[in-house]
Specification:
Layout lengths: L5 E12 L2 E12 L3 E5 L6 H8 L7 E6 L2 E2 L5 H8 E3 L12 H12 L3 H7 L3 H17 L15 H13 L5 E5 L7 H16 L3 E5 L3 H5 L4 E6 L2 E6 L1 H5 L2 H8 L2
Parallel strand pairs: 3-8, 3-9, 6-7, 7-8
Antiparallel strand pairs: 1-2, 1-4, 4-5, 9-10
Helix pairs in contact: 3-5, 3-6, 5-6, 6-7
This protein binds adenosine-5'-diphosphate and magnesium ion.
The site of magnesium ion (MG) has 4 residues, from α1.
Length: about 250
């Protein structure tokens, strides 16, 4: 999509778990060619917001428009097919499988009659197409030379980038990343930021949850600050950095 095209427009998202309101009326928009960071303390509702947008959890209230279509209530698989890919905060690569096999898992998910094909097995042509796409995406992120290595043998920063290659196999217009820089060394964070900038230049919209302030301040076009399930404020990095409410609630811990 051309830069500036609205990809995600969520309004009034709400989700409770028992008596706990995890997400309390969140509005969120992401456009093509934009990196938006969702920040806030632990338990603020960031991962739950991701789950609502990707159909992993169902919202109690709110509207979610993706690429112009209302999708609230649709299952995760349907939303993924529309062009939304994500990484999970805690689900990682299968360490014993090769890098290329891990990436191919993402391409598998794109198969049209996915569940049925999974049950019947893939024919060779399809299998070859899936691996060709996986190799394309691995090359796109600059890790082609590691294709045959066990995923678990790569450095953590490279594994994170392999996770992104796997997500890219879905040909997403919108990419959601939950704490992609967590635990990475400075050089690894720089490589990750470079890759995300390249994807942004390719026209993807990127929504990321991140705790590392230096990382997001240098990368995001816009930040959305959450606290106790609600949006505290929103704006470009410079405005957020100097917002008294943010400093008190979050940055000035
Ligand atoms: P964040 O990602 O910002 O750290 P989460 O979205 O994971 O926050 O969690 C927000 C709140 O909702 C937390 O209090 C968390 O304990 C609670 N929560 C999240 N998922 C569930 C769940 N599946 N069942 C019950 N409570 C949950
Ligand atoms: Mg989280």
């Amino acid at each position: 999509a051309p830069a500036g095209t609205p990809l995600l427009d969520a309004q009034g998202l709400r989700k409770s778990f028992g008596g706990l309101v995890a997400v309390d009326g969140i509005d969120l928009a992401v456009r093509a060619g934009e990196i938006v960071a969702l920040i806030g303390p632990n338990g603020a509702g960031k991962s739950t917001t991701f789950n609502l947008v990707t159909g992993v959890a169902r919202c109690d209230a709110g509207r979610i428009t993706l690429f112009g279509r209302e999708v609230a209530g649709q299952p995760a698989r349907a939303i993924a097919r529309l062009g939304v890919a994500r990484s999970f905060q805690h689900v990682k690569l299968v360490g014993g499988m090769s890098v290329i096999e891990n990436v191919a898992l993402g391409a598998h998910l794109r198969g049209r009659a996915g569940a049925l094909r999974g049950a019947l097995g893939l024919d060779r042509t399809e299998e070859a197409a899936i691996f060709a796409e996986a190799r394309r995406q691995l090359a796109r992120v600059g890790l082609a030379e590691f294709a045959e290595r066990p995923a678990g043998s790569l450095a953590l920063g490279q594994q994170r980038i392999v996770e992104i290659a796997r997500a890219l196999c879905l040909s997403p217009a919108l990419l959601l990343l939950d704490e992609p820089a967590a635990g990475l060394r400075l050089r690894e964070k720089q490589a990750l930021a470079d890759l995300l900038r390249r994807l942004r230049a390719d026209g993807l919209g990127i929504l990321l949850v991140e705790h590392d302030m230096d990382f997001v301040m240098g990368l995001a076009d816009r930040l959305v600050v959450m606290n106790f399930g609600a949006k505290l404020c929103e704006g470009p990095p410079a405005a957020i950095r100097s917002d008294p409410a943010v400093i008190e609630a979050y940055l000035g811990r």
